[in-house]
Design goal:
The complex is a heterodimer of chains A (185) and B (838). With 185 residues, chain A is of the alpha+beta class. Chain A has six helices and eight strands; from the N terminus they run H-H-H-E-E-E-H-E-E-H-E-E-H-E. Chain A has helices spanning 2-6, 9-16, 28-31, 88-93, 116-134, 160-173, and strands spanning 41-46, 55-61, 64-70, 102-104, 112-113, 135-139, 142-153, 176-180. The two termini of chain B are 37 Å apart. The longest helix of chain B has 17 residues, at 449-465. Chain B is globular. Chain B folds into three domains: 2-111 and 161-246, Dimethylsulfoxide Reductase, domain 2 (3-Layer(aba) Sandwich); 251-428 and 431-563, Rossmann fold; 702-827, Barwin-like endoglucanases. Chain B is built from 25 helices and 31 strands. Chain B is α/β, with parallel strands linked by helices. At the A-B interface, strand 1, strand 2, strand 3, helix 4 and strand 4 of A face helix 3, helix 13, strand 8, helix 16 and strand 10 of B.
């Protein structure tokens, strides 16, 4: 009977002197809870939204993202993130994120599925055929080396290395000049 | 921006966010920093807590204004008058930092006798060629002596010296004119002018922060120029707590101009060759850009090393290192330029990577209609953005104007990897390269853009190998052999960054910095200003995470050469001593015979100061070690051949050596300053699908401006699908004053229609005192402020604000004027209203 009474939290708190807000109020499950990221791997990252460049810590385990937090060691952000930066875990994991290639044929009313490698083959074919039609080697005896009928847009949300590959392949390799991004310089 | 580039030498923020705590005053204009750059704004708050004066100048009272000492509302599009008013105040009240101005700026130089300015020509500068709509800039040049050196007057008294030209030019920009054009009462302006300019001098400094509220104008570059002139006159550049902090809005927008996915430049701000005889050979192209002194003296080393990085062993001295394989630009290939070609059916294919022009670009309806003219479109993004789905759910499809069966465009959507699923570096708003790791593997078909480009390039190179036409020579030569790794064969991104950094040809030895570049083909370097980021094969400095000191050295890598405050030699007097103990940053150490300090010197480390260093453009030190040439003039602005900060820009701008106020292309008023109404060199791109309202058109009585919310990002692709952000900002609204609400009989929360010459959209009215009517030339002008993040897809949807905005091109960078247009507001009856929350 005594032990039964002692399992009643109110009695336990009275006998143990707690005020009901400490460990005495916790269930066994709560008492043994650990941090979700306790044994996670941590990667250093940078917020992908604006250009303040806040540091982020990316917690992951077994190839799965667990959480993204501000990096307290960043000399710029000192651990802080704004509402967008704090939403980056959702940015990477939310349900509406697309994870498959989609293809829309001319005049089609809906998307259809397409294998990734096949899609890339098709794009390479389109580029090759289109470029052959739109390329001018020289004009008035002067070099032009220009592909005028293929354009590119985007870069400010990408990595420096990706911008470099765009410029190198599209301009240095294909001769495309209609290259632009969000910046105006 | 050439605004910063022509004034100081480099198109990047001169300072770092952390340096704001060293400022005695901070002027935030054309930005709501607290809302668009909240974590960066912490440094403003910290400064404010230590007593720094914070001034916010913006049409809208925002959280930035709430934390500032002063908020001055002004009419959108009147910024040159406000900043020019400050310049006038400085000159009229002798508030300039005289010793700095004489030693470090081009104030003493004499302008040619045949120059005439807006005072003489009703708003135009001399050299205007009406038939060609361009300026001949020859009369803007400096008067030279028999040796080709610019004449100067260090007393600043000569009537044709730049300083006297400034006094004359800005004499019109009086407090009364500020009141009349900006709507800022004279007394409030004078109070702010006194307080801001009091915070500069040998032991005080002030910083200007701006964002696209200053740049997205038909005079955007000249607005930045006005800010630069003000800061140079006050001696605020290159010093702690000084400078201009350009607040960029995308994670690597600075990086995407440094390594430009832009049409008119090559990596490191090298110009693209322009079609014609001047770029027909490498020699001619180099002569055009190389300067006798300053960092552009080594232009040939930068371009040859870039060609070696791109074309490898195939780039030889005999074939001009493959220069002939580069395309030449031959027109307006900018976003709006080529998009209009697309609208007219002259563009066949388009790649869109991480951008959403169907929502985010000016005259978005025109942009969407143009997409339907393409033969094929590739979109890479993390969600199906409106640009990918335009053919099935654009407003034009919903309205019945068109339908999928009538749209022939073939569309490929490739899902993109997120930042934590790929390695690489962003360059932030203060030129800092910061690496992010590939923490996890991207799901499904999601791949990095690097993966897409690398494997597309492999396929195209295979095709080129079998097709030996001259058109394919560059593609065949292109080095494209990055190692791949991981389950998806992702290219090794550090190998790409090593190539960007540069190495010695025929060796695995990395370059330690751009000072090692040579022009004989002995070095290969993908972007010279980034050289030093990967100085040995296993030392990726963008990945460094040991911040030390006030400027965080050891954390990331700031271009150039890890210099955190640009032009920091200006923090010392000409003789090398600090201007004051309080503002000590970089100084000459006599004992060590080198420059030293809290930052990496932005100056040849061992070049001694010259007492009273003055303008000298000769090559007198030709026999000295090569990196000393950069400082051959002794001036701190080492990118400029004369080493000086340019109050006057003789070369490099298309619309004037000095900023002049022109009204926005669409304006509620005539220009009160000059007979010339708007920037004569700006291009309206006027056509039936890009129409304009008349000046002071009574059909559009209000000023329209757009802005960002904290909780959404640009065109919404990274925010409207996220539940928390969507919940925080669930619907499109427009901010209007209670006075305007009364005038059109609208209550807070009711729906209104916003109409411009381009289109009309619907939004909820947010009636708030955060917007105030202004008195402009005696007339009440209302302003309407509109966030632009919404589109038809995602958890929260709304009409597309950019359907109201016109395409237009500022003459220097072809930026659109989206921050100052005119509109009208109509009350919507409940019968007309759309779905709530739409």
């Amino acid at each position: 009977m005594n032990s039964l009474l002692r399992r009643w939290p109110v009695i336990r708190q009275l006998l143990d002197g707690g005020d009901g807000t400490g460990v005495e109020a916790m269930t066994e499950r709560t008492r043994t809870l650990g941090l979700r990221i306790a044994d996670a791997s941590v990667s250093r990252s940078i917020c992908p939204y604006c250009a303040v460049g806040c540091g982020q810590l990316v917690f992951h385990r077994d190839g799965k993202l667990l959480a993204i937090e501000g990096d307290p060691e960043s000399p710029i952000s000192e651990g802080h993130l704004c509402p967008k930066g704090a939403a980056t875990f959702e940015l990477l994991t939310h349900a509406a994120r697309e994870t498959t290639v989609k293809y829309r044929a001319p005049h089609a009313t809906d998307w259809q599925e397409l294998d990734l490698e096949t899609a890339l083959d098709m794009v390479a074919d389109r580029v090759w055929q289109t470029r052959a039609r739109g390329f001018t080697v020289s004009r008035d005896g002067l070099p032009l080396m220009q592909c005028a009928n293929i354009a590119h847009l985007g870069g400010a949300t990408l990595d420096n290395e990706e911008n470099y590959l765009i410029k190198k392949l599209f301009t240095g390799g294909l001769g495309m000049v209609a290259i632009s991004n969000q910046a105006r310089i | 921006m050439p605004g910063l580039g022509t004034s100081f030498g480099r198109g990047g923020a001169t300072t770092a966010q952390q340096d704001l705590v060293n400022a005695d005053a901070i002027l935030i204009i054309g930005s709501s920093m607290a809302e668009a750059h909240p974590v960066g704004f912490r440094w403003v708050v910290k400064a404010h807590e230590h007593g720094t004066l914070v001034i916010h100048v913006d049409p809208r009272f925002s959280r930035t204004s709430a934390l500032a000492d002063v908020w001055l509302p002004l009419r959108a599009g009147s910024d040159i008058v406000f900043l020019g008013g400050l310049v006038h105040y400085v000159l009229a009240n002798h508030r300039d930092f005289h010793e700095y101005v004489v030693a470090y700026t081009n104030a003493p130089l004499l302008v040619r006798e045949d120059f005439l300015g807006p005072e003489d020509l009703q708003g135009l500068f001399s050299g205007w060629q009406r038939d060609r709509q361009t300026y001949d800039t020859s009369s803007w040049q400096f008067e030279t002596d028999e040796n080709g050196r610019a004449r100067s007057d260090p007393t600043l008294q000569h009537p044709r010296c730049v300083y006297q030209h400034l006094i004359r030019h800005f004499s019109r920009y009086t407090p009364e004119m500020v009141e009349r054009v900006c709507g800022i009462p004279r007394d409030r302006f004078l109070e702010v002018a006194d307080r801001y300019t009091s915070c500069s001098g040998p032991d005080r400094t002030a910083t200007i922060c701006y964002a696209v509220g200053l740049t997205q104008h038909s005079v955007g570059v000249q607005i930045i120029r006005t800010a630069a002139i003000l800061q140079l006159l006050l001696g605020n550049v290159g010093r702690p707590g000084g400078g201009i902090l350009a607040l960029r809005g995308h994670a690597s927008i600075q990086g995407s101009t440094d390594i430009p996915t832009l049409y008119d430049m090559l990596p490191g701000y090298l110009p693209m060759p322009i079609f014609g005889p001047e770029s027909s050979t490498l020699g001619r192209y180099t002569v055009r850009t190389r300067t006798p002194t300053g960092m552009w003296r080594y232009f040939d080393a930068y371009i040859v090393s870039l060609l070696k990085a791109w074309y490898g062993d195939a780039a030889t001295r005999e074939n001009e290192f493959g220069f002939g394989w580069l395309p030449r630009i031959s027109g307006d290939h900018s976003h709006q330029g080529y998009w209009l070609e697309m609208a007219d059916g002259r563009m066949d294919g388009l790649f869109v990577m991480g951008q959403n022009p169907a929502v985010g670009a000016p005259n978005a309806a025109l942009e969407r209609r143009a997409l339907a003219q393409l033969k094929w479109l590739v979109v890479r993004d993390m969600v199906e953005v409106e640009t990918a789905s335009f053919w099935k759910d654009s407003p034009e499809v919903t309205s019945g104007e068109t339908s999928p069966d009538r749209i022939a465009t073939e569309v490929f959507f490739f899902p993109a990897a997120g930042h934590a699923e790929k390695a690489g570096c962003f360059t932030n708003t203060q030129r800092l390269l910061q690496w992010h790791d590939d923490a996890v593997t991207a799901p499904g078909d999601c791949r990095s853009d690097a993966w897409f480009l690398f494997h597309l390039g492999r396929r195209l190179k295979t095709k080129a190998a079998a097709d030996t036409q001259p058109a394919n020579a560059g593609l065949r030569a292109l080095t494209w052999d990055y190692p791949v790794a991981g389950p998806h064969d992702e290219p090794d991104i550090e190998a790409v960054l090593r190539e960007i950094n540069g190495r010695y040809v025929g060796s695995s030895l990395q370059l330690r910095g751009f000072h090692e570049l040579v022009a004989d083909g002995g070095t290969a370097c993908g972007c010279w200003i980034y050289s030093g980021v990967f100085p040995t094969a296993d030392d990726n400095r963008a990945r460094h995470r040991q911040a030390k000191g006030a400027y965080g050295h050891g954390w990331g890598f700031a271009w150039p050469a890890d210099r955190r405050i640009l032009y920091n030699r200006a923090s010392a007097r000409p003789d090398g001593r600090p201007w004051s103990e309080r503002k000590r940053l970089v100084w000459w150490d006599d004992a060590a015979a080198q420059w030293t300090g809290y930052d990496t010197p932005d100056f040849p480390r061992e070049r001694p100061p010259e007492v009273g260093a003055m303008y000298d453009a000769t090559e007198s030190t030709a026999s000295a070690a090569r990196d000393l040439f950069a400082g051959a003039t002794g001036g701190p602005f080492i990118m400029h051949a004369d080493g000086l900060g340019w109050l006057w820009v003789a070369n490099g701008l298309r619309d004037g050596p000095l900023p002049a106020h022109y009204e926005p292309l669409e304006s509620p008023t005539v220009n009160a300053l000059y007979g010339q109404q708007s920037n004569p060199v700006a291009d309206r791109r006027e056509r039936p699908d890009n129409p304009w309202a008349a000046i002071a058109d009574p059909a559009f009585p209000h000023v329209l401006t757009t802005y960002r919310l904290t909780e959404h990002h640009t065109a919404g692709g990274m925010s409207r699908t996220l539940s928390r952000l969507a919940e925080l900002q669930p619907a499109l609204f427009c901010e209007i004053s209670p006075e305007l609400a009364d005038a059109i009989d609208v209550a807070n929360g009711e729906r209104v229609r916003i109409v411009t010459a381009r289109g009309k959209i619907e939004a909820r009215a947010l009636v708030t005192r955060r917007i105030t009517p202004l008195t402009i030339a005696g007339r009440t002008i209302h302003q309407v402020a509109l966030p632009w993040h919404f589109g038809q897809r995602g958890l929260v949807t709304g009409d597309i604000a950019n359907d109201l905005i016109a395409m237009s091109e500022e003459p220097n960078v072809r930026i659109m004027e989206s921050k100052a247009l005119i509109c009208r507001l109509e009350k919507l009856g409940s019968r007309e209203a759309g779905e709530p929350g739409s």
